[in-house]
């Protein structure tokens, strides 16, 4: 069920033309930059987007411009844990987990969970309660289990479904931003 929905949604995303995708992505960026949660956050965590994910580089650059600290995760497949590292224009990235670009743990400064004000959580599809289907690693569910800051997801309307059958370990996000605007879960 989860797997099917993940594949179906990814297939639908593939159908969206570049022009439409870019237009929606720009709208999503605008909505995010207007949120008080964004404005107030001193430290934000997000991933390097790829494929049909809403691009995060424009948000990273904006965060730098606004004097925020940006963090990017590195996944540790053995323990299934994730650590966020400070990301600056000088940060050396390595291609590791799933070919994702990640900060080199040996050369980067780790950031404590308590210091992160806002996490932009990646995912494939989302329901009206903020529950999500991620890429299947459970990394975010583990990380968010004892996270107390704000969580935000970027998604196109086609990635939204009414109800996902959430499992006990699944952690919902508190804000979803689509091309149509921001929706608060709590
Ligand atoms: N807090 C947790 N403790 C132990 N195992 C967990 C925890 N959270 C998730 N898992 C395990 O991780 C695996 C993947 O979880 P799930 O299918 O929810 O992935 P996902 O939500 O798509 O991934 P992600 O959170 O990385 O976006 C599952 O087998 C699940 O049991
Ligand atoms: Mg999950």
Structural commentary:
This protein has 186 residues and is of the alpha/beta class. The protein has one domain: Rossmann fold (3-Layer(aba) Sandwich), CATH 3.40.50.10420. An eight-stranded mixed beta sheet has the order 6-3-2-1-7-10-12-13. A three-stranded mixed beta sheet has the order 9-8-11, with helices on one face. The model has no long low-confidence stretch (mean pLDDT 95). Bound molecules: adenosine-5'-triphosphate (ATP) and magnesium ion (MG). Magnesium ion binds next to loops.
Number of DSSP E strands = 13
N-to-C CA distance: 26 Å
What is the string of helix and strand elements? Answer: HHHEHEEEEEEEEHEEEE
Question: Poorly predicted ranges (pLDDT <50, ≥5 residues)?
Answer: none
Count of alpha and pi helical runs:
5
CATH topology term: Rossmann fold
Sequence of strands across the biggest β-sheet: 6-3-2-1-7-10-12-13
Q: Rounded to an integer, what's the Rg over CA atoms?
A: 16 Å
Hetero ligands: adenosine-5'-triphosphate, magnesium ion
Under CATH at level 1, the class stands as Alpha Beta
The helix content, as a percent range, equals: 25-40%
CATH superfamily: NagB/RpiA/CoA transferase-like
Portion in beta strands:
25-35%
């Amino acid at each position: 069920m989860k797997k099917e929905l993940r594949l179906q949604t990814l297939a639908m995303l593939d159908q969206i033309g570049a022009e439409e995708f870019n237009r929606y992505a720009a709208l999503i960026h605008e909505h995010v930059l207007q949120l008080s949660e964004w404005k107030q956050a001193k430290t934000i965590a997000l991933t390097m987007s790829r494929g049909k994910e809403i691009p995060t580089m424009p948000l990273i650059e904006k965060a730098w411009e606004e004097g925020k600290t940006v963090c990017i995760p590195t996944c540790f497949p053995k323990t299934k844990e994730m650590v966020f590292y400070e990301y600056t224009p000088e940060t050396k990235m390595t291609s590791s987990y799933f070919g994702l670009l990640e900060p080199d743990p040996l050369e980067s400064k780790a950031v404590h969970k308590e210091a992160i004000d806002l996490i932009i959580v990646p995912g494939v599809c989302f329901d009206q309660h903020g529950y999500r289907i991620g890429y299947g690693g459970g990394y975010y569910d583990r990380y968010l289990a004892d996270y107390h800051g704000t969580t935000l997801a970027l998604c196109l309307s086609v990635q939204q479904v009414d109800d996902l059958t959430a499992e006990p370990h699944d952690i919902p996000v508190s804000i979803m931003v689509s091309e149509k605007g921001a929706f608060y879960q709590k």
